[in-house]
# Entry
Amino acid sequence: GPLFRPFLFRLGPEDHILLLVIHHIVCDGWSMGVLLRELGAAYGAAVCGEAAALPPVALQYADYAAWERDWVQGEVLEKQLSYWTGQLRGAPSVLDLRGDRPRPETRRGTGGRRTFDLPKELAEKISRLARAEGSTLYMTLLAALGVLLSQQTGQNDILIGSPVAGRNRVETEGVIGLFINTIVLRLKIDGNPSFRELMQRVRETALGAYTHQEVPFERLVDALKVQRSLSHNPLFQVWFVLQNSGGFPPLFQGLAVEDVALQAAAIRHDLQLSIEETPSALNVQWDYATDIFEVPTVDLLADRLAALLLRVAEHPELPVATLLGLVDRDVCEREQEKRRKLETESVSKLKESRRKAVRL
# Structure
């Protein structure tokens, strides 16, 4: 400890950075929204010389922890574990991501980050496709990620980790604490299905996982007797999350506030894909283990995901292999266009330098 440490950096008379360092054991993404909203309300009250009128908290996190411990045991726990052991039986324990370097025997945990935007038009097309197939944006993006990983690894049985909020009761919505849990989603991409068919597979898998989300991930790892290794995470090495909280929430009276992006200094998995819905685009963030990946490889993965989503939005009825063939062509054409543009710019710079030399 301490588990919560605030710092205020004064950059100028009207320019500050507020840094909140919070241990994950007492906070999650949902909690940050609660904390920042209440901080904004408290600041506004202080500016007006009033006491902050924060909403009453229905329960404490300790109450939730005690309830969870009492409920997830016995028959309930056995039923949930039975589902997961059946769902994950025979699944590959390691995903061969074929990075730029062999996986080290001991992970350092150092990470890098690359961010991209998917245009609003593409995001809307993907959302319409999801609705038409009785699916969700999350499930559709997850299916696309599974296709990408299958091509990257040569495996058609893929495990991907993902968080669930764990706030299934109204009383927990205003509580700060670690409610999230990790679920493991098994995507089977065998038989060269159409993307539309794959979406239905992913939908069934996701709904089953949501229904059995109460088992703490560490209990699941113990129950499955997973062989532990310092070189990779148990069960899955790729993490996927769709953030749809609406962006940076706080309003501070009289202040202009913006979120300050931080670079990934540490990473728990080989790859982490985080996508956030905004009014103007889908913000895509790739965090990667620098032990395994170089920047160009991650950029290529990002390009391929964008190209795949574009093709999927246009032709979800096509088989996965056909879609990947089209993606290969699209990415190749874009790379060739980039090289032509660089060559043109180089020639232009060379001609300009020669003109300057002549003038001298």
Summary: The radius of gyration is 24 Å. Residues 320-359 form the longest helix (40 residues). DSSP finds nine helices and eight strands in the chain.
